[in-house]
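dumping this here so i dont lose it
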């Protein structure tokens, strides 16, 4: 969709007249009319106001000309997962799990920001990837190519130990680097991997995390 159609759709969905929208973003009704007939587009500052008003990214307002990805974890960014600043403005460089309310959410990410920024963090990710690929020799586990930031609450599965005890190894309130990988042998189960500064974890599970089994939990 073009910007003119997007603004019209969002304004209509919110139940605003052109006059009401103009008042909220400090422009004239004629300016709104020109946006909606495609003769002009809002300037940068007005796009920021429209973004906050409609709760969509500027990228969406412009017809999604860019494929956004989180500069921290590489996750594809849609409006529902884009981070926000403390004032509610979208930060279109990061996902909401890596960055929220004006700060990075991951303790080890903050440490790498202090000592070297994104380059050091990327080095850390590559180090973890190398460890998965060289230290662990798990039948059916494909080569790890990428790690994403994952919230613990999404991946903290409960495993049954040989003695029958049910155990969780992660923290729901923490974030980890991990991924989901299809088994090289096919079938209904896939691998889940997760890591931080202290450990590497590999498990298998069925769809939606059903029937999880712990394969490896290795201290680094």
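and the seq i came up w/
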């Amino acid at each position: 969709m073009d910007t003119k159609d997007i603004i019209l759709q969002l304004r209509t969905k919110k139940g605003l007249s052109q006059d009401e929208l103009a008042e909220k973003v400090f422009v004239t009704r004629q300016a709104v009319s020109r946006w909606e007939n495609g003769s002009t587009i809002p300037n940068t500052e007005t796009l920021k106001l429209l973004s906050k008003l409609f709760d969509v990214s500027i990228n969406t307002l412009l017809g999604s000309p860019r494929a956004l990805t989180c500069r921290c974890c590489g996750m594809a960014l849609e409006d529902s997962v884009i981070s926000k600043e403390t004032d509610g403005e979208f930060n279109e460089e990061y996902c909401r799990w890596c960055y929220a309310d004006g700060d990075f959410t991951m303790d080890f990410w903050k440490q790498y920001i202090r000592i070297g920024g994104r380059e050091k963090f990327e080095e850390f990710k590559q180090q973890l990837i190398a460890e998965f690929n060289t230290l662990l020799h798990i039948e059916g586990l494909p080569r790890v190519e990428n790690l994403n930031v994952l919230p613990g609450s999404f991946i903290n599965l409960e495993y049954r130990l040989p003695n029958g005890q049910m155990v969780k190894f992660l923290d729901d309130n923490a974030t980890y680097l991990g991924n989901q990988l299809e088994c090289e042998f096919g079938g209904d189960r896939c691998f889940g991997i997760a890591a931080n500064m202290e450990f590497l974890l590999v498990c298998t599970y069925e769809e939606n995390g059903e029937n999880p089994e712990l394969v490896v939990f290795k201290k680094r």
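The chain has a mean pLDDT of 90.
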